[in-house]
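Homework help board

Subject: predicted structure for assignment chain

Our instructor gave us this sequence and asked us to write out the predicted structure in token form, then describe one feature. I got the tokens but I'm not sure how to describe them. Can anyone check?
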Amino acid sequence: MAQNGTNWKNVNNWHWVEKNCFPWAKKYVADQLVNQSAEDAGTKVSISELASMGGDVNINQRKGKIITVYDVEFSLKWTGEDANGNKASGKIVVPELMHDTEPEEIVFDISLDTETKENEKIKQVVRNSLLPVLRKQLSTFSKDMIENNGKDVYIAPQEMKGHPVLKPYQPKPPTAAALTGAAPKAVLGGTTTINQKIEFVASGRDIYETLLDAQRVRAWTRGKAEIAREVGGTFNLFDGNITGTIVELVPNKKIVQKWRLRTWPNNHHSTVTLDLEEGSDSTILRLTQEEVPIGEKEITEGNWQNYYWNSIKGAFGYGALL
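My token output:
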């Protein structure tokens, strides 16, 4: 559900509401970074222009919880001059800024328009003195996005104007063993089937979209997930630990996938069937996973519970954790 203005029919902030914040983000980055400057030993450097920016920036709300999901790259132009009047210019490229990137993890690639010994010294001032300034300016990106755009996807309780207000669900974070990237091993003892039944306090459409919409998947995986929501489309989750192909889609009712963990033998895929049964106030998801290596059954069951169902419930408030 795209949203450009407050949806006053969204009582108790129950439904998923989404706003594209890329235009805001582009202006924000320019406002925050252009004209920022630094000086060291008579050498002055500054940002002169936001040269380019691309990617996705969205703010989402479900059941009173606001979530920022973004993945952008941008480049800046910089100029500098040392105490002797030597001038230099170049670019700073940020190849990836994501919602789960810590300020100290932001990568800045600095280049010079003209390579000389004097210009290299000016470039070092950019690296040592200007980058910390830029890092600090970007540290409140998510917070400022919520402050400036949150009102478009969230109705404050005091503004419900007589509607009943439910207390927002606040789950504890899941605890689980990490997905491993161990070397593939052979199937020993054959394969087995996993069956799970999970109740979500949400509509069938909500769960269907949460499992297939790329922005929502990035929200509950908290990473750079890739998924093509069409028959024959591929998906790649959790840094490649889970991959596969979509085999069948019945809107809001059924998803069938060829699905594998990285730890499984090469080219071995299970068949995952997700059936959605919508009731009056909740939806039952029935998971059937066939052809699971017997030695991988326990960890696979745990991964569904902790990395899928608990993460989805924790991100969107779709019910109690398992």
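Reply (TA_rk): Your tokens look well-formed. For the description, you could write something like this. The longest helix spans residues 117-138. That's the kind of observation they're looking for.
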